[in-house]
Model the fold of this input.
Amino acid sequence: MSAEIITIGTELLHGLVRDTNAERIVELLAGIGIEVHYKTSVGDDSARMADAFRAAAHRARYVVTTGGLGATPDDVTRKTIATVFRRRLVLDETVLDRMRARFRERGVEMPAMNESQALIPKGTKIIENLRGLAPGLHFTYQEANFFVLPGVPAEAEAMMDQYVVPFLRASRAGSQVGRRIVRTIGISESALAERLQGIESEEPAIKVGYLPHASGVDVTLAAASPDRAWLTGALDRLELRVREAAGEAVYGEEGETLAQVLGRLLLARKLTIAAAESITGGGLGAAITSVPGSSRYFLGGVVAYSNRAKQELLGVRTATLERHGAVSAPAAEEMAAGARERFGCDLALSTTGVAGPNGGSDEKPVGLVYLGIASRDGSESARFIFSGVRAEVSARSVSYALDLARRHLLRQPV
Amino acid sequence: MSAEIITIGTELLHGLVRDTNAERIVELLAGIGIEVHYKTSVGDDSARMADAFRAAAHRARYVVTTGGLGATPDDVTRKTIATVFRRRLVLDETVLDRMRARFRERGVEMPAMNESQALIPKGTKIIENLRGLAPGLHFTYQEANFFVLPGVPAEAEAMMDQYVVPFLRASRAGSQVGRRIVRTIGISESALAERLQGIESEEPAIKVGYLPHASGVDVTLAAASPDRAWLTGALDRLELRVREAAGEAVYGEEGETLAQVLGRLLLARKLTIAAAESITGGGLGAAITSVPGSSRYFLGGVVAYSNRAKQELLGVRTATLERHGAVSAPAAEEMAAGARERFGCDLALSTTGVAGPNGGSDEKPVGLVYLGIASRDGSESARFIFSGVRAEVSARSVSYALDLARRHLLRQPV
Done:
């Protein structure tokens, strides 16, 4: 029941873009217990693509490809499939009509060039593109099922969700593989590993892994077994142990973000929130509003990059800025209190710090961050020194600010 | 002069870790003008690894592999090389002594298990590991050079820097490939391709590619030729043609972001900017402040998610919200004007729209976005319908807002 992924696009071999499609598809297949044996990237080159298609056709049961379905001359996936698998390209009128309608919706006439996207290899099934233009394709060659998806990540992912994963589930392609992910923040990888020492010997068939990133450390538990019931039981037992060991640092499971968890906690308590941002420049508000429906609890924010903005828009006192500076606990607390008052909300978060690469000093080094929270109980702040480049310092500030609110809300009654 | 990358490790096929080795090696090879034709990942499985090695040996001139050089039983790269290329494994006393010395330095006796790392396929050259234990290997098979590196990213990168890249430079492997990237925004991929139709026939040796993403479309020009001077000239000519055809839509070249370009334009004109965000939730400010030194021109922003915040913090009129709604041209213009006044800056940008997935209507569908800009000449706005999921609508809104400011500034004297 093995699968193979082929991502197509010269840009993938130039170091310009990250191959997020391969990453995401591997994850989705692993999630339904399908093992990926090969992952290949080739450029927009018909001969090399053909080579990869032929190799996959002979060794894999399921092949997922992305890319090369656009309308420009460098998009040659359809043509290559026609050649390799000896299927004539036929203009599909339904696809063409659907594409024309898409353009009409936007009030634009479809350029002639896009017609090539309706040329479909004969005998292939169309996978409708709900997010864009180019349809996906599904066909079989001997024992292999080919799923041919567009390169635009959101379009490829939508087709995985709407067609490929349900198809594979229905054909019971997945073997007895189980995985759990416990997401934590506020505890280091090594501290977590120490607390979990010996845990692997309790269930030797389960592989324990640690995956650190800007929003904490994920603990992964993975196992394969012919005995589904045993597998579920063993994973349940070990997941419980991990959750006990990590305590309040646990914020979620696979696929959950801190912003989603925070949103749920706020909704359950019927509370609203606002943000007063300096170092994160708007990233905290962007994270909170990445959750659909966040307008029910997020009222807004102020990005106070200049001192004047901190004073005028958030009411930070001149004396505070003069005595402690903009990167200080009192400034963080006044920013949060000011935002809470301006927006008339229950909670407000604030961020202030030195993002780098310049602007650091011995006393206030690059990576120094103060995060504040204001509630009806008053204002508090926490001090951090984050490592990494500018973008990482900012990303960690966002995560730990969300966590500050999460931990505060855990202590409030629902 | 083509290269191929093979990354080895079951974890790469489980979707939990990013294949940073492949990303980094592609970048390093592109940097010295070596084209990568295939990038493959396989698990710690001897048969599949052998398969990948054999394919690479027959089609690539240079093959870089990472992973599978550890001491545990699942590390089978050395054994597989011995089998595939018929080279006997021999215990290398020099390598063994060096490894023992490493352990002694740490005050530890070398475990017997590690001896396997000194088993070297006969006739291969050792690449010393300055960052860790397992040595790298270099050997040739027919026309192909194999560089076999460890999976630990820092160790693999050190070997690339200290051995592989200098070797390839010395053999002049990479001198005959050139690349240009022209970054555009505000013109669709197919419109761009139509304007550039026939351009490929002007310089048939140059491959033209299109890479669309949230911040526009990148046009890539790539070519290989034995004649370096001709190559540079041909790329110069074609780049000029692309820049002419795309006109004001061109904002930068390889490695440049819209936020950087905007920052430079503002600094050159000694102007300041602020943001009034609704649909982007802070993402616009986050993009502007992703640039080091942005505090010199970015004063701050208001994230006005609720109508009340739009009125109280940005001075949007109640009548405007009642008559036109928060997602409208007048609201966008008043938001921008309000931010400009609040922050006392030269320019202000605003974003308002329907991010989805819910909240859309026939009149105001998901993806409808108004972007505003206020300057001393007054306020303007532009209407867009962006496709994609919530995160994409937001990302496109950020990019097009930055572009609105960029185009405005291009018309202002320096």
Q: What stands out?
A: Chain B touches chain A through 96 residues (CB under 8 Å).
